[in-house]
Amino acid sequence: MLYLLNGIKKLAESNYASKEDRDFWWAGYMSYYSNDYSTAMDMFTKYNQINQTEPLGVLWMARTIERDKDRDYKNGAAKESYTKWLGMVKEEDAAKKKDFTKAYTYLAMVAYNNNNKEEVKKYADKLFQFNPEDDTAKQLIKALPSMK
Fold first, then answer.
1. Residues 88 and 41 in one domain
2. What does the buried/exposed string (b/e) look like for 51-60 if buried means 16 or more CB atoms within 10 Å of the residue's CB?
3. Total domain count for the chain?
4. Do residues 33 and 61 make contact, with C-beta atoms less than 8 angstroms apart?
5. What's the confidence (pLDDT) of residue 13?
6. Is 66 a member of any domain?
7. Is 83 in the same domain as 148?
8. What local confidence, expressed as pLDDT, does residue 15 receive?
């Protein structure tokens, strides 16, 4: 896989006529799954600069930042990227249900860990909108009365 990743990264950064914008996304995607988050962020940044209205790169940037800089949902490092992505997509898009759940779970957990009761409620309600049986949302709503 590393060989393929290096090849796609070289293609994305080259001046070859056959290069496509999506090559940056593929290089970022493969870097993400190779746990090379620095390269993934570089590739998603380049993809997002070229495709400023395309939500796919923004979502994967958010996932990369979360995985690299905020696995425990404490500092909110990926909040800006997830919020930007949410502003680019329509909640009615059923194909993105898992992505909405991931984004709202992250935002709800960051709010919880930063004792922001209002945002916890807001994002837990969004989670219920996508899945009325969401365990994380249930636990967050149950915890609300004990929050300051």
1. no
2. beeebbbbbb
3. 2
4. no
5. 61
6. no
7. yes
8. 55
